[in-house]
Structure formats: C-alpha cells, structure tokens
NADP-dependent alcohol dehydrogenase (Orbus hercynius), 384 residues
Amino acid sequence: MQNFQFYNPTRIIFGQDTISQLATYLPKGARILIVYGGQSAINNGTLDEVKTTLAPDFYYQAFGGIEPNPHFETLLKAVDIVKKHKIDFLLAVGGGSVIDGTKFIAQAALYRDDPWKILTKTGVEVKDALPLATVLTLPATGSEMNCRGVITRAETQEKLSFRTELIFPQFSILDPSKTYSLPKRQLENGIVDSFVHTLEQYLTYPVDAKVTDYFAEGILKTLLEIAPDVIHKPDDYQARANFMWAATLALNGILATGVPEDWATHRIGHELTALYGLDHARTLALILPVLWSLKKEEKRAKLLQYALRIWGITSGTDDEKIDSAIEKTVHFFQSLGMKNTLADYGISKDVDLLVARLEQHGHTALGEQGNITLTISRQILERI
Ligand code: NZQ
Ligand code: ZN
C-alpha cells in the first residue's frame, strides 16, 4: 500500500425529508446565496423546500441559470451578486454543475486577481474561499463531498479543473427522493460517471491495498446491481438511495487511499466536452475501453482482478479474460445508452485540435505511470 493522507470534513445528512434539517447546520446570521441551475430545482419543488426552511431566520438571495458544464461567464455574474449583497455563505441546490459552479464562486468572490487564474493556476494562489453547503439532486460527480470542480469558459471552449481543500462543502444534504424527477439520460450519465470514477482509482496496478480495492469492488458491484432499477423504476427509493451513496463514495477520496490513480480518461474527456458539448459521462464511456485496450500490459494484473471479481470470468487465457472484461464493460455502458464512437453522436472530430488542446493544458503525460503521452492520446482519439 502506498503512503497517503485522508482528509474529508464534509458532513453528510442523508435520507428522505432531510432538507428540513438545513437551517440547523447553517451558521447563525449567515447571509446566503442559493445557487441553482435551470428549471429542475423549481419544477421538483426542491428550491421551494429550501427557501421555506430558510425563511424567516436567514437573509438570502437566489441565483439561477447555472448551465450544465457551468460557464465561467455566468459564474462571474453570481460573484457580483455576492459582493453587492454582502453574501457570506453559498448554498448549491442541484447536480455537479451547480455545485462546481458554487465552489468557483466561493473562491472568485475573495480572489483579488483575474479569476481565470483560479483555473489556469498561474499567478496568485487561492488562499481563501467563502463557506458553502449543498443540496444534491443528481448522483454522479461526488462534488457534494470533495474539493474539486470543473468549469467551462464558453468564449474559448476550454474546460479546466481546480482542487483546493478550501472548498469542501461544510455539509451536504442527500435526499434520494429528490432524484425521482431525473430524466433517463441523466440517470444513465450518473451511473456511468460514478462507475468510471471508481475505475480511474482502481484499475491501475496492484499495490496490495486490500481495503481500498474491496471498497472499490463493492461500489462497482453495487452500481451494476442497481442500474436496472435506477433506470426502470422511477420511484424505487432503495435503488436511488444506494445509487446516491455509491456515487458520493466513488469520488470523496476514500477510493484513492493508498493506491495510484489514473484520470487520463477524464482529462481527455474534458477536451471532448469543451469542444463538442458531449455529456461528461458519454465522453468517459467512449475513452475508457479504448485506453484499457492500449494499456493492457501496464494494467494487466488489475484487469485480471477486475475480470474475476467483478465479472466472475474464470475461463480462457489471461488475454481472453481481459478482452471479455472489456467487452462486458462496453455492454454495460451500452445498456445505459452510451454509444461507441463520436460519429454515433453526430460529432465529426478534429484529432489534431484535440491533441493541441491536451498539449496546451499540460496533459502530455497522463495516467498512473505518466506514460499516456500525446501520441497515445492521439491513438485513443483516432479510435473513438
Ligand atoms: O439545470 P437544471 O435545470 O437543474 O437541470 C439539470 C441539468 O440539465 C438536470 N438535473 C439535475 N438534477 C435534476 C435534474 N433534472 C431533473 N431532476 C433533478 N433532480 O440534470 C442536468 C445535468 O446536470 P449537471 O449538474 O450538469 O450533471 P452532473 O451532476 O453530471 O454534473 C456534470 C458536471 O460535473 C463535472 C462535469 O465535468 C460536469 O461539468 N464533474 C465534476 C466533478 C467533481 N466536482 O468532482 C467530477 C466529475 O468527474 C465531473 O468532471
Ligand atoms: Zn467524472
């Protein structure tokens, strides 16, 4: 097992009707900005429920309109509101985009330099951020219990990430019944995103981290088991509850304890979303199986462990077992509406431009061994 530190201060308040506890955990006298996305939190009643809990004890403003793949440009408008109304606490109500956007607002509101530098990480370091909390409506990203975020600049079609302990949510409310209104496409995306988060931390090379491996395998098996009920039974509380908790655990840091991490699939995927607007999870489902095929030798031991423990594959040569595990993964993704190529989504790719973007963003040595060079990324992009 590798050396590690684990730190996660986010309180999770989990279960049906837990939004009613919101006010209990807010700092007394807080001046709050509620941040939300398009219409979903209004239509399913979550926003009203939140406002009812806040009134009349808290001063609040609301800022809506955060896009999926939240835009830098929109978030700056929220920063103006924070400053104008002397807001000192942010409350995200929504999915990963709203939460990531809120994490960005928390930093930008107190940042004295050009806020784009928060993403390019050039110049002044972020030293402070407003406190925040979340009410999650879409299980997928784990953003409700981690200190990461991904922001898109519409003007330049760039999608960049940040990570700082300053933006761990103080608490997150996870009510699985708030997911009942999710469209099928977002449920599919959420399952695939959390499945791939788990794999980006699990499917590298063995370091005898037994606890972390069994945790990861437990999450993979849970997602495989509940996926049909999540998709086909819109009000199956137990399926939604297990989905929500699995998605949170997939990216709250616990699966990274003592193990190497990959993340190449995510880095390459962000470039596809930035240029073509394809849903985050759909980019991952395209890239991951191709990356595994190209990196079969380096990932051999873990691919065999995955084949045996997740898919129960015991017959054939090692190569056949690995190929079968990759094929079963692809079938699982297909069962969730994922397609096999960019062309299947009607996207005509520009591989040279995508490779140039990876280079521009410093993604020239990706993966757990740092050996996913631009040449390998190009091979992946050519095959999807
Ligand atoms: O905008 P509204 O109207 O709220 O609709 C949203 C949006 O259209 C809708 N939705 C959310 N909750 C709903 C609902 N519709 C009906 N009922 C509900 N209960 O779903 C759509 C997608 O929402 P979005 O927040 O964009 O999805 P997701 O949670 O998958 O977040 C994706 C973003 O998170 C980033 C992605 O790159 C992408 O920008 N990620 C963040 C990570 C992190 N912070 O750790 C890690 C991930 O790998 C990922 O990169
Ligand atoms: Zn992801």
User: Anything to note?
Assistant: Strands lie at 11-14, 31-36, 59-63, 89-94, 132-136, 148-153, 158-163, 171-174. The radius of gyration is 20 Å. The mean pLDDT is 97. The chain has two domains: 11-178, 184-383.
